[in-house]
Amino acid sequence: GINAEYGIPPHHSTRKRMARKRIREYAAKRLIQKHFPFKKFPAVKLNLRAVLVTEKTDWNELKAQNPWLLTEPLVAKPDMMFGKRGKNNLVLLKANAEKAQTFVSDWFKKELTLGTSTGRLTHFIIEPFVPHNEEYYLSFVSQREFDVVSFSPAGGIDVEEHWDQVKHVHVPTGQRLTPADFAALGIDNLPSSPERKDKLRQFIEGAFLYFQDLDFTLLEMNPFAFAQGPEGETPVPLDFHCELDSTAHFKNRKTWDDIEFPNPFGSHFLPEEEHIKHMDEKSGSSLKLKVLNPKGRIWLMVAGGGASVIYADTVADLGFEQELANYGEYSGGPTEDETYEYAVTILKLATREPDPRGKVLLIGGAIANFTDIAKTFKGIIRALKEYKTALQQTNMKIFVRRAGPNYQAGLELMRRVEKEINIPVTVFGPEKTMTHIVSLATDCVNNRSS
Question: CB-based contacts of 87: which residues, under 8 Å, 6+ apart?
């Protein structure tokens, strides 16, 4: 089974620190609108209208395609994946199209500082203003072995000041909400009409199905409200904060459409990250790199998106999260030249700042289905030879575990290169679990620290 291959106990899951990627509020609302109503809850309908605006937006064309912009009061706010927009005076309410356009255009010319992050606001969401009375808080969060569902009738801008009113239930992974869960969330005791309570239950249960089925790791609505429509009261999520499990992209290509995972506000790519990003865009393979700690002593060069999550999780589980230098993957059958270029980029980063205690490099992956291990290893070995001196100066130790087509030849190449570069290289195939080399590497880091 998959857990045996990865060296994970059967009860263990990687959900806690999976590849959580934020998405824009506009993208989240498009997704939820596309998938509501659920067949199980045909009475719960949504009518979410919104537009995404950037500096390149043609306002005349936007208004022509969305005539409601000219006839309804509007809300305009940044769609940059940070919270507390209201408290930071970044939300324009009850505006007409002209005022919304001015508000957005003015912000495009400024820089904003939030905490330690400074940057420009490049994306705004504009939607109709929804008159409402009550504001509710609702969130779903993926944890290791369960999902946390939280609800409060006191949502909105001051929800944190009323956090004692937020109720939580833990739902085992893959299970649905039960009547007992709704009772624990306080729905039964709300001073609302039976019809409103029924719609609340249906909306929460439907949104939870949506959260699970589309592989969200976080879905927070603060607030959502009820608005009067042609068919009576309908729930309206006013503010969304969402994250997806990016490793599930392969199974959600059609349902996620052309979803993007933008960088958080104020974040910037290192030149090396930019380089890999450009390579990825031009390649038929998948090449990803995120530097977490340039001074970290544990560097990863991992084949496969799922494997990359497992390796990063295991490093953290063993207590070495602060030493984890990078996260990423190469997969989808990259060419020898692409693997060489990917390896060079990581080695350049890993050897840039030598540490007297030394560093470790994990070259790992699961059992490949189609990738020729020897071919990809040839690219990595070229890079290792090129960085021979830098690796020696960095006091690097290398741990390898790989299996799949032609893996014996690939592992033999790795064993030979140890003598050529005069760097310790420990090599394993499928006789060891995928994460075996992680414990060896962390032991090495720990021993060198003492």
Answer: 157
Neighbours of 39 (CB within 10 A): 6
pLDDT tens string 369-380: 777 888 889 999
CA-CA distance, 201 to 30, in Å (whole number)?
22
pLDDT value of position 41:
63
Judge whether residue 366 has pLDDT over 50: yes
**Which DSSP state fits 54?**
-
Residues 6+ apart with CB under 8 A from 126: 50, 51, 53, 69, 74, 75, 76, 100, 104
Q: Are 329 and 397 in contact (CB under 8 A)?
A: no
pLDDT of residue 8: 34
Average pLDDT over every residue of 331-347? 93
Helix 436-449 and helix 305-317, axial crossing angle in degrees, nearest 10 = 40
For residue 435, give the 3-state DSSP assignment. Answer: coil
How high is the mean pLDDT of the chain? Answer: 89
CB 227 within 8 A of CB 233: yes
What pLDDT is attached to residue 17?
Answer: 41
Residues with Cβ < 8 Å from 286, sequence gap 6 or more? 280, 305, 329, 330, 331, 332
Joined together, the tokens standing for residue 412 give 């033999």
Give the pLDDT score at 6. Answer: 35
Q: How far is CA 51 from CA 68, 98, 123, 127, in A?
A: 11, 15, 10, 7
Angle between helices 407-421 and 373-386 (to 10 degrees): 10
Q: Which residues pair with 126 in a beta bridge?
A: 51, 76
pLDDT at 218 over 70: yes
| 339-343, Cβ contacts within 8 angstroms, sequence gap of 24 or more | 339/376, 339/377, 339/378, 339/379, 339/380, 340/379, 340/380, 340/382, 340/383, 341/279, 341/379, 342/276, 342/279, 342/287, 342/289, 342/301, 342/379, 343/301, 343/379, 343/380, 343/382, 343/383, 343/384
What is the pairing mode between strands 232-237 and 216-229? antiparallel
